[in-house]
Amino acid sequence: MTMMKKILLIEDDELDVMSVQRALKKIDVSHELLTAYNGVEALELLVGKSGNRIMNPLPDIILLDINMPVMNGWEFLDEYNHRNIDPQGKSAIYILSSSVFSEDINRARTYSQVKDFIRKPLDVTRIREILNTKEAV
Prior knowledge:
Elements: E1 5-10, H1 14-26, E2 31-36, H2 39-47, E3 61-65, H3 73-82, E4 92-97, H4 102-108, E5 114-119, H5 124-136
Helix pairs in contact: 2-3
């Protein structure tokens, strides 16, 4: 693959973090993986603790769990929009969840930045599809 991919994984479950790390190692893609364990940590990575600088460049891909302590995925998305972190939509956001509730899937569709709702665990085939889709953008 061609360019280095910057990926932000927002996930509180260490086993799911390791699963994503393993999947990324199995595919031939140069990447930088940043990990935040809740929405607050993710926002601090993106805009700093003071909130006045935006990470440059933004992640190509954000993998977002919705059920986390401190600040869940929905709260993160609301704050991400409120702060106008990515007005040009450079980051593709994918919700990662073990939820099977149609309410969660439908709610994910209300956010324009969310490209897909993916049920955990994220496997090699699916991460490859995500990376290939992002390259075509």
